[in-house]
What we know:
- The structure is a single chain.
- The radius of gyration is 16 Å and the shape is globular.
- By secondary structure, it is an alpha+beta fold.
- Strands 2-1-5-3-4 form a five-stranded mixed beta sheet, sandwiched between helices.
- The chain has helices spanning 38-45, 79-82, 101-109, 118-131, 137-143, 154-168, and strands spanning 18-23, 26-32, 64-67, 70-73, 86-88.
- The protein is built from six helices and five strands.
- The protein has two domains: 18-90, Beta-grasp domain (Ubiquitin-like (UB roll)), CATH 3.10.20; 101-168, [2Fe-2S]-binding domain (DNA polymerase, domain 1).
Amino acid sequence: MSLQSFSLQSSATLPTRIKEIQVNGTRYKIDAAPETSLLSVLRDQLDLTGSKYGCGEGQCGACTVLIDGNPRHSCTVTVGAAAKRQITTIEGLELNGKLHPLQQAFLDAGAMQCAFCTSGMIMTGVSLLKTNRNPTDAQIAEFMQGNICRCGTYPRVVAALRRAAAAMSGQAGKGE
C-alpha cells in the first residue's frame, strides 16, 4: 500500500470541528477544522514534535506517522480523515521506558546525522518490519522510498533495519 493511496473522507461528511483524536493509545481533546493537517495538530495542539515538517507536500517523509499501522505523511493527511483512526507517532513506540528495537538499532548503527528525517525513517521502518520480519536490502530500499535523508545515511538506515529485524527475531548480532 503506497503512502499516497490513503483515502480521505469527503469534506461533506466531516463535522465542522474535530474535537478528539486517539494518538499513541491515548484519547486527546483537540479543536481543529477537519481540513487542518494532522501534522499541525500533532505538533501545535498535542506538543508531539517528533514528526517533523519537511516539505509540506508528502515527498520527504519527515512527518511520517502510522495510521492504523500504515505509514502516512501527516503533512498531507487531514485531521478529519485521521480522527477516527489509530495514530502512532515516534513518541508512542517506546514501551515501559524501553526503546522499540528499531529505535535502538538506529542508535547502535549511527543511522542518523542531523536526525531531521529519523522519526519518519523509523516509523516507515517499523511498518515494514511488522509485515516483513526479514527484509532484503532491496525490499528495504523499495519500502523506504518515501523517505529522504539529506545527509545520505541510507547505508546506515539499511544496516539499522537489518539489525532490528535480527533483534526482533531473536538473532541479535546476525545479519548486520
